[in-house]
Amino acid sequence: MTCLPETIEVNDRDLIACAQQGDRQAFSELVCRHQEKIVSLTYHMCGDLRLAEDAAQEAFVRVWQNLNSYKPQYAFRSWLYRIAANAALDSLRRERPTADLDSLSRADPGSGPEQSVEKNQRAAHVRRAIAHLSPALRVVLILREYQELTYQEIADALDIPVGTVMSRLNSARVQLRHELLVLLEEI
Amino acid sequence: MSPHVSELLAAYHDGELSLKRQQQVESHLQDCPACRAELEELEGLTSALKAYIVPDSTPPERFAAQVQLRLPHATLAPARSKGELPAHWALGVPLALIIAWTALQAALWVISATLSVDNLTGQRAAFFNSWIPAGGLLSINGNLLVINIILFAGTTILWSAWMALWLVWKEKEE
Questions:
Q1: Among residues A35, A34, A24, A84, which one has the least CA distance to residue B76?
Q2: Are A101 and A124 in contact (CB under 8 A)?
Q3: pLDDT tens sequence across A161-177
Q4: Domain with A35 in it: what CATH number?
Q5: Is the pLDDT of residue A21 over 80?
Q6: Distance between CA A72 and CA B72 in Å, rounded?
Q7: CA distance A67 to A69
Q8: Which helix (H) or strand (E) holds B73?
Q9: Is the pLDDT of residue B82 over 50?
Q10: Domain with B148 in it
Q11: What's the DSSP call for residue A70?
Q12: pTM (predicted TM-score)
């Protein structure tokens, strides 16, 4: 299958309506559209690409299975993020992440070997610090820092009050600042 | 100098403040090195987090094909929210109760109309004697009246309870 080019204006709502009627092609288009963001979320949650892709696929399977309970008055993205975050946490409960060699060995074409090693070390340092956060803090931080969701969108996705989003985000940042002290001093 | 704005800095950094509040923070930051340093720390953290990038993942088309392989073959289940019962239950259960009650009443009537205590002997006579009046169902007999009242009351209670539950579910759904 091929994903529709972005120039074809079929919005998510239409695709969801088709998918709810059992149209697998429309569902595949939805998957194509949201795959990158969802894999990014699950990767930052799991810290392991294989686990992250598996969790993202599992999330889309759950979306398909529950598509008819989705109500169009709510943002599809928020609903999807919630399912993906839960799938990532389930995946972490089942399996421990292994060192993600793909991300560590990937060389930046614009930098030399030393800079590349330094970048990888930084990435590994950040990954460890994020992994030390509790799941509740981690998911809020990731939705804000990597997915760039607003406080309200995070609240909707996780079904928690905006005040809780702010306090969890603050706690996550305090903990990260403590863990990444050396790294922050270098920046 | 205006009071420190520490509690607003995170929201300012995340672009979550109203224009008025934003201007208030910006005005304070111009004169306050401590709050500026705190904001720089937040910005530094966001910048440091960007080092943790997602490695090249499966291309979207291939990923979508893999998802397709994991989808169940059966078609989607009809829309049903948590706690809701299928629509046919709502009519089916009270209808079944009415049919059962009517059938029981009809059976009693037929028995009482076709049989009389006089043409029964032995154990059967003893059994029917206990609850069928010699004159048939329509002649009021104490036992029969009790049975009918119990059946009617039981059916009414069950049906009312069912309808009440159904209405609660319906309201929740709406």
A1: A24
A2: no
A3: 999 999 999 999 999 99
A4: 1.10.1740.10
A5: yes
A6: 23
A7: 5
A8: none
A9: no
A10: 87-173
A11: -
A12: 0.67
